[in-house]
Amino acid sequence: IILEILFIGSYFDVLPWSPYTHATNVLDKVAFILGLQKHSYAVIIDAGSTASRVLAFTFHESVFDKNLKLDHELFVQVKPGLSSFADNPQKGAEKIAELLERAKEVIPPSELKNTPLAMKATAGLRLLAVEKAEGLLEEVRKLFKTSPFLTNENSVSIMDGSDEGLFSWFTVNFLLDRFGGDQDQTLAALDLGGGSTQVTFMPTDQATLDETKPEFLHHISAFHHNVTVYAQSYLGLGLMAARKEILSVGNVQDSTTLRSKCINPIINTKWSYGGVTYAVMGPEKPHYKEVKADRSVKEKYPIVKFEECLKIISAYVNKKVDKPKELNQKTISAFSYYYDRATEYGLI
Fold first, then answer.
1. In this structure, are residues 34 and 25 in contact, taking their beta carbons and an 8 Å threshold?
2. Against a cut of 0.90, is the pTM above it?
């Protein structure tokens, strides 16, 4: 009787919880105690351009709506990213092995053989030469074959940029419980990585569907609903990849010494990206601003000419980006480097 009251009350949303969410609720916990459901596990390695990350998930399938409910998540990362080991793939695989050991700590030993394991590499490997990227993937495949997890020939791969956007969009809306209702409730996802950036949302304006190139529209199934999602990935517009290209403007191709109008003339520093270390400094012909120290003395301070730097950045970004008008009407979730930079500068 108690279970019936709990279920009916939750179903009609008259109790302060609902079974139609991603998280475990009271009904699921009661069912778990009674032995009506059990945990399942999954491990994902996200081989990004600036770091490799392991995510170990603990789920159960709800006895009420048959959807997966998230119980626990492990997140650990190691730096640098896998692509930094392009010339030493064995060392790169060792970094992935470190992450697998952390995943083992949260999964019962008896369940390891039933726990699917996959590694998806993103823009860092997409930007590498094919033979170097394949060398890294092959070393990880060898590692996976010796692991106790459940793997197959498709467990290690490079993720397509559009799929990267779709997965991030799905994850955000799943965690915020935006599925199952009006399509306008779903959020747009802006994912700023190190090597690429993705823009993903569910268009509801017919003009968007009519004006968008077919390759940017993806037809997927989300919780028993067939939906059309706009997903566009921009390789080279990740924070680090774009920085490298912008700093390279005006320099000899493949030079490791980068002089840029976007760097203050007093700066002379080292910066590493993609396994290469660059010497970064201001332009050879610096700009100065005169400032009065007192009534009779003027001092010159080195500056970056904002307008000149903005032209360089705009020229690089604008030649790549598609701008769907409907995106302006969407509630947006921006994450990855968007979050990191906003936090660093006190915006959030």
1. no
2. no
